[in-house]
Hints:
The structure holds two protein chains of two kinds. By secondary structure, chain A is an alpha+beta fold. Chain A has a single domain, classed as Beta-grasp domain (Ubiquitin-like (UB roll), Roll). In chain A, 31% of the residues lie in helices and 31% in strands. Chain A contains three helices and seven strands. Chain A has helices spanning 10-16, 32-42, 44-52; strands at 3-8, 20-24, 30-31, 57-60, 63-65, 70-71, 76-80. A five-stranded mixed β-sheet of chain A has the order 2-1-7-4-5. Chain A has a two-stranded antiparallel sheet with strand order 3-6. In chain A, a hairpin with a 2-residue loop joins β4 (57-60) and β5. Chain B has a single domain, classed as Molybdopterin biosynthesis MoaE subunit (Aldehyde Oxidoreductase, domain 3, Alpha-Beta Complex). Helices cover 34% and strands 35% of the residues of chain B. Chain B is of the alpha+beta class. Chain B contains four helices and eight strands. Chain A binds chain B through residues 7, 9-11, 14, 55, 59, 62-64, 78, 80-86, and chain B through 35, 49-52, 54-55, 58, 80, 91-92, 112, 115-124, 134-137, 141. Chain B: This is Molybdopterin synthase catalytic subunit. Chain B: One of its GO terms (molecular function) is molybdopterin synthase activity. Chain B: One of its GO terms (biological process) is Mo-molybdopterin cofactor biosynthetic process. Chain B: Converts molybdopterin precursor Z into molybdopterin. This requires the incorporation of two sulfur atoms into precursor Z to generate a dithiolene group. The sulfur is provided by MoaD.
Amino acid sequence: MASVTILYFASLREQLGRERETAAVAAEGESVTSLLSALRAQDSALNALFERTPRIRVAINQALASFQDTVRPGDELAFFPPMTGG
Amino acid sequence: MIRVLVQTDAFDLGGEMARLSHISDSVGGISVFMGQVRGQGDGLESLTLEHYPGMTEKVLIGLAEEATARFSLLGCTVIHRVGTMRVGEPIVFVGTASGHRAEALQATAFLIDRLKTGAPFWKCERFTDGRTTWVEAREADDDAAALWD
Lengths: 86, 149
């Protein structure tokens, strides 16, 4: 089945208790929002985390992206809180 | 000349400045920003910096290339540490070399402002009583980054 790798960083990783997973994705690709809805429907901890955490960012293949962008099989998706470097 | 490093070790401030200074005879000004762990009188013991290996390097190289083109830099060095650092320890080095001071000064400000909100680093604070908290992003940092749009 077509899949993507999902990474979680910082407080999201810590609260979920995992840093990566794989998820099924439509063979022709689908939006991050669509993929995330399916994941949240299957995982109440993930759903609660996204509900209580404002301003979650998404990256596709290591570049900042928007939740409307398309994820395709083989992509690396990452979710994380706003960045606090420097 | 672009030099981007993400590392756990401390960096050699003097060595990095000398490297920028020796890039070419055309260098007339070098500007440096160094960020370090700030003690806040609230029992902060250390910061642990987490990052997104792969994306971090891409973002930092992209920013260094953008700064080099935008400010006509002759040299641009960005070194960011990850892992655990105690109060007073250096976290980040940004150094730029240009023909004249204005470009180097502006480029350094551009790089640190953009890096804070655009490069995938996250700080977790550890206090002497054992508590840990993730640092919240500040709106003022977004505003500073947006000034360069």
